[in-house]
């Protein structure tokens, strides 16, 4: 799906205390791109992703997907659009504690009233692919953070969304699980042409993207296109992170 973001802005708070989180950003995302959004903490990555995914309305500007201006839709139509076309992996996972793993993962298909056989097949496929089939009957509060993130990913991907939004999708994962998830995201991007937008601090994660847009203080600072070599792209991303500065995120864990 082709996404056109036109002159969007978002403020939080009022008058002199207002935070200008996003300032007049214009951006195009082509069908089948795997776009990374990077930038220092507080740059506006999550806010930008939330507006493109229509979870938050911009104060100004338009979000146009395949010619449809989503900022003109009413909440009910937007909710339907999201359910049919979009998948989400949030930082906070948003899993429902009252449901077990299987019930959480199949929820998007159950809501769109898919038949039981399809639901069961897709469920087994996703769980095997992400290597989490053993978790099927577990309760959410019995899961580690990394397991929650993988379950949230399975739920986001089960109904083959046309656009996938991911906010720090590997933030709680060890490197093995991160690699499994990133390989799968790359696979659906390449084979099914799923358009993916992903906010991340992590250069390794971003190196799976086809292009990375860097934002700083609510505006687009620069962008880099994957030269077709992940190691080289990784180096370019690290260099851009150094240039952009303002975020002490290279060795965050050493600060604790
Ligand atoms: N609901 C809110 N109310 C008030 N201010 C907010 C809200 N959401 C975001 N902000 C502010 O908007 C700015 C951008 O925040 P945002 O979460 O989009 O940044 P980010 O780049 O995703 O940061 P991080 O990498 O730390 O997650 C920050 O200054 C933040 O404090």
Automatic annotation (TrEMBL):
Residues 3-242 form the ABC transporter domain. One of its GO terms (molecular function) is ATP hydrolysis activity. InterPro entries: AAA+_ATPase, ABC_transporter-like_ATP-bd, MacB-like_ATP-bd, P-loop_NTPase. It comes from the Bacteria. The keyword RNA-binding does not apply. Coiled coil: none annotated. This is ABC transporter ATP-binding protein.
């Amino acid at each position: 799906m082709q996404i056109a973001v036109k002159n969007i802005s978002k403020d939080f708070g009022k008058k002199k205390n207002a935070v200008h989180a996003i300032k007049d950003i214009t951006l195009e995302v082509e069908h089948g791109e795997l776009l990374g959004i990077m930038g220092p903490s507080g740059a506006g990555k999550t806010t930008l992703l939330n507006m493109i995914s229509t979870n938050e309305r911009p104060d100004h500007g338009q979000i146009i997907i395949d010619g449809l201006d989503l900022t003109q839709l009413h909440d009910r139509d937007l909710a339907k659009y999201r359910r049919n076309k979009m998948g989400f992996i949030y930082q906070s996972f948003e899993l429902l504690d009252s449901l077990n793993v299987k019930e959480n993962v199949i929820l998007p298909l159950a809501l769109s009233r898919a038949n039981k056989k399809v639901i069961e097949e897709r469920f087994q496929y996703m769980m095997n692919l992400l290597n989490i089939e053993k978790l099927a009957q577990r309760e959410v509060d019995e899961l580690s953070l990394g397991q929650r993130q993988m379950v949230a990913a399975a739920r986001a991907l089960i109904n083959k969304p046309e656009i996938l939004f991911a906010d720090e999708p590997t933030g709680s994962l060890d490197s093995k699980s991160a690699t499994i998830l990133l390989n799968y995201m790359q696979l659906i991007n390449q084979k099914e042409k799923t358009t993916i937008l992903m906010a991340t601090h992590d250069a390794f994660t971003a190196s799976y993207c086809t292009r990375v847009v860097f934002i700083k203080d609510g505006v687009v600072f620069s962008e880099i296109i994957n030269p077709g070599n992940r190691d080289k792209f990784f180096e370019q991303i690290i260099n851009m992170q150094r240039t952009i500065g303002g975020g002490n995120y290279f060795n965050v864990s050493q600060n604790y």
